[in-house]
Design goal:
By secondary structure, the chain is mostly helical. The chain has one domain. Helix content is about 55%, strand content about 5%. The chain is built from 9 helices and 2 strands; from the N terminus they run αββαααααααα. It has a two-stranded antiparallel ribbon with strand order 1-2. α1 crosses α2, α2 packs across α5 and α6 packs antiparallel against α7. About 5% of the residues have low confidence.
């Protein structure tokens, strides 16, 4: 899992600054802060609510498959979310360094940080968890793990990392496509339910996902190949 550990935890080194939220008295009227001034408003913009269909399983095996997939997805999603949050800042910092020696020194600091703090934790991921993580990194960043390694290190290393991953049935070039792959649809369903229940913190994907189109496709009864027309 070294190749996945590197690309995921590479983003963890960049630390975001945080600002304290403005506290407001919502018992009387809602306010919007514009240029430092509190402007009273009579309407509040609400987030879109996704209505999720009731879960239905063809048999016990399908239900067990979903439960196992849910456990694995909930486990690895935070790492993919972290990757998306850190990617932009990481690239900005690397681009700000003009000399190659400074970039190499910065990369060395990152590698030491990874080895000391987080490698052991991510190495505990199973093969299937690793592949789900690769898919979710694509969902959150819009780029495959292979492409991210290629950009941040070199194409040659990305090539070898991918070939090594194949030995463990993991493709770093794997994309997240719930309209094509049924497992990806199930992962998206798991995420949306976890967002709604506040089990996971919502982060929008890097590309548009038509969830209802996926539901319409994968929720249709499967036609037996032995059935007569």
């Amino acid at each position: 899992m070294k190749y996945i550990v590197y690309i995921t935890l590479l983003f963890a080194f960049v630390v975001h600054g945080q600002q304290d939220p403005v506290k407001q008295d919502s018992t009387i009227v809602n306010y919007m802060i514009i240029d430092g001034d509190s402007i009273p408003v009579t309407a509040v913009e609400l987030n879109e609510v996704l209505v999720l269909p009731r879960l239905k399983f063809e048999d016990k095996a399908s239900r067990i498959r979903y439960i196992i997939l849910r456990r694995k997805t909930l486990k690895v999603y935070p790492y993919a979310k972290l990757a998306a949050e850190r990617l932009e800042d990481l690239q900005k910092r690397l681009n700000a360094l003009e000399r190659n020696s400074d970039k190499r020194r910065y990369a060395k600091i990152i590698q030491n940080y990874i080895e000391d703090e987080f490698s052991a934790e991510l190495k505990k991921l199973t093969k299937t968890e690793g592949q789900i993580l690769v898919k979710l990194i694509h969902r959150q960043t819009g780029k495959t793990t292979f492409d991210l390694i290629k950009e941040l290190r070199s194409g040659w290393r990305a090539f070898w990392f991918n070939n090594t991953a194949k030995l463990f049935d993991i493709s770093l070039k794997k994309e997240f496509d719930p309209i094509i792959e049924e497992e990806d649809y199930l992962i998206e369903d798991i995420l949306q339910r976890a967002f709604r229940n506040e089990r996971l913190k919502r982060q929008e994907p890097a590309f548009n996902i038509d969830f209802y189109a996926c539901v319409n496709k994968w929720s249709k009864p499967k036609t037996s190949s032995n059935s007569k027309s």
